[in-house]
Amino acid sequence: MTHPREEVRAGLQTDRPHSARVWNYLLGGKDNHPVDSEAGEVILKTFPEFAAVARLQRRFLARAVRFLTDTAGVRQFLDIGTGLPTADSTHQLAQRIAPESRIVYVDNDPLVLVHAQALLTSSTEGACAYVDADVRAPERVLAEAAQTLDLSRPVALTMLGIMGQISDAERPADLVSTLMSALPPGSYLALSDGTNTNEALNTAVGVYNGQSANTYHLRSPQEIASFFAGLELVEPGVVPTAAWRPDADRAQEDTADVSVCGVAVKK
Ligand SMILES: C[S@@+](CC[C@H](N)C(=O)[O-])C[C@H]1O[C@@H](n2cnc3c(N)ncnc32)[C@H](O)[C@@H]1O
């Protein structure tokens, strides 16, 4: 938990739930306020499996970054909608395999900015940077990322649980396409998001949206798959998050299929 003076300095809204802090609560973290844990509990009351869904998404991050680093040979990562630091952040996952990996984190939440130091523990061979920016300003994100990443070489763009923060009116597919257009062939997109396929979750998110500083937009699996337009999906395509290259030696948590994910390459 941050010191109250830091919170005032950062202009944090502690009277309304924030996505990053509610997510932190669902993942069992301590960097959240009573409004966030209450909002988390409202979701869990209607849809108790949601904490397992949050854990599932973190495990997809781990499998995707392992694939991108180990199999695809990517050494640069742009992680948008990073969230509050937790175990196994993108730089830890990538640099465990390739210490020279360079990672830029992007989030627009003031508390994530306060905690950004914990994301900047790069290996000496690699680099980590944090950019306080909004995905709805992709040109700015790219300009800041270019201070740390060489955008003439392949980059893996990771967007987990972030497109759902963007309404249809804000044209989420265009944001993804603007970002990917600035990256060279051989770059990848790893993306996951919540689906509107479960009535209990739809109700829970509706209640959350009524009180939160950020609204969440659940979409159909087809709509989420359309974010990969123009890219070549790697096997097994856009699938329920638990089904994307599951670890053979790790038992999956049994939970509802309410999110899909995929990884695709720019040819
Ligand atoms: C559901 S959390 C996902 C965190 C992490 N990617 C994960 O999968 O565990 C969504 C994150 O996106 C951030 N976010 C929401 N809207 C954003 C925006 N417009 N620009 C940048 N980040 C945003 C939130 O602050 C939060 O940290």
Characterization of this structure:
It comes from Streptomyces prasinus. Keywords: Methyltransferase, Transferase. This is SAM-dependent methyltransferase. InterPro entries: SAM-dependent_MTases_sf, SAM_dep_MeTrfase_SAV2177_type. With 267 residues, the chain is α/β, with parallel strands linked by helices. The protein has one domain (54-197, 216-265): Vaccinia Virus protein VP39 (Rossmann fold), CATH 3.40.50.150. The protein has helices at residues 4-10, 19-26, 34-46, 50-71, 90-97, 110-114, 138-145, 172-181, 199-211, 221-225; strands spanning 76-80, 102-107, 127-132, 156-160, 188-194, 232-233, 239-240, 259-265. Strands 1, 2, 3, 4, 5, 6, 7 and 8 form an 8-stranded mixed sheet that branches. Strand 4, helix 8 and strand 5 form a beta-alpha-beta unit. The longest helix has 22 residues, at 50-71. The protein starts with a helix and ends with a strand. 43% of the residues are buried. Bound molecules: S-adenosylmethionine.
